[in-house]
Design brief:
Layout: E1 2-3, E2 20-27, H1 30-40, H2 44-47, H3 49-53, H4 64-78, E3 91-96, E4 105-117, E5 124-134, E6 140-151, E7 154-155
Antiparallel strand pairs: 1-7, 2-4, 3-6, 4-5, 5-6
Length: 156
């Protein structure tokens, strides 16, 4: 066995099926909703309060992509930056379930769904995670799943 990632606090071996972790807290402001949307998702219900009032949302809402970014940032601050993460091959099952409005306070919840060593790269392991963004009423506003690649402390 050789050492793969000794300097990281959290490695593949630290993830266990069924583990749940809640982290972060971020209150969404109108200014950040407008700023993100003007740059990346300029639909009327994200960038124009008056127009947003006339939609099914009855007011300004954050872009779903903005919400995903906020959830991911809280996960970065909560554990990923201390981990041996090597990225991900992509996201699955992204669902925007509730609108996020100015003044909402979000948290991130992750649940470990599966883990497996990577046969082609023995220094890495795969972790399947369900990510959820929760608002101040504990409603899930966004849900997504993905496989992440993490360095192992030791490899065969």
């Amino acid at each position: 066995m050789s050492q793969a990632t000794p300097s990281f606090k959290i490695c593949w071996e630290d993830f266990h099926v069924g583990d749940v972790r809640v982290m972060g807290s971020h209150t969404v402001t109108e200014a950040e909703i407008l700023d993100f949307a003007r740059q990346f998702d300029p639909q009327r219900f994200h960038v124009d309060k008056a127009q947003a009032e006339k939609t099914i949302y009855k007011g300004l809402i954050a872009s779903g992509w903005h919400t995903c970014g906020l959830v991911f940032r809280m996960a970065c601050d909560g554990f990923l930056l201390e981990s041996s993460s090597m990225g991900s091959p992509g996201l699955d099952n992204v669902r925007w379930l509730k609108p996020v409005r100015p003044g909402d306070t979000l948290r991130t919840r992750i649940e470990i769904l599966e883990t497996r060593p990577m046969a082609s790269k023995p220094e890495l392991g795969m972790v399947k995670v369900r990510w959820e963004g929760l608002n101040q009423r504990d409603e899930v506003v966004v849900s997504m799943e993905n496989w992440g690649m993490f360095g192992r402390r030791t490899s065969a």
